[in-house]
Amino acid sequence: MTDKITINITDQTGRIDAILANQDLPYSRTVLANWVQSGEVLVNGQRVKRSYKVTAGDVISIQPPVVQPTEIVAEAMPLDIVYEDADLLVVNKPQGMVVHPAAGHTSGTLVNGLLHHAPLSTINGEFRPGIVHRIDRDTSGLLMVAKNDQAHQALSAQLKAHKNDRIYYALVRGEFEENTGTINAPIARHAIDRKKQAVQEGGREAVTHFEVIARYVGYTLLKVRLETGRTHQIRVHLTYIGHPIVGDPVYGGAQKLPGVTLAGQLLHAKTLSLTQPTTGETLTFDSEIPAYFAQALATLTPINPQHD
Q: Which of the residues are catalytic?
């Protein structure tokens, strides 16, 4: 069993989840908050709510739960690897594939296939080896994967500093008057539906840039560039401005196209730029619009562009 952690409060004040997040513990704020709720964190020997306000003299004890050992099984599967070197690889993930194992998806994920192909970094936890950033199951496109811990740290630092270029194509409902725009609206977990994200005051900064690529009757094809990388950011932001992504079952009502069977949102991670961790070279990768996306576009009626 992991040793119990004891924290003696002297002059700190505030919510217990915020206090714990500032204790330089080897656990994320989300994990610690969940432990408060489930009783692994006690104050003066008693369970408290996450909103509990810590005061001087409180003694916080944390008993990390025992994690049952598990093993991710390497599985042979076809992978569309567009680049690989000693430090990293870039893979074109198909729509419908889960990136890493989690509850309900212990096999058949991208990580299962990657482990069969090459060694991966270990610093991101047991269930997400190599995964520097994620894209949703029903989003297709380019994903960078670290093969060693040094590369993982370097690539993560690039993401945090907004030094990567990540461009998506999205088909959204509705027609745009403008040709370009920026959505700057903070995102946090939805106050009621905890599986969703939402634009909320006090959330984390989130910035999304968009450009109109093609106009159709009732729909618009956008090129979207992420400046930040919040969970579900593009899907949340486009819904927020009244143009949900076609086929999005969570944020867009899973609206349908006549004669087209959609397996999820029409969102594709098309272009990815990164700095190679060892050489410092800038690498840029581009992918074709996948067949499921192209078939959907072919059913739409184009609008002649009103500008050059």
A: 136
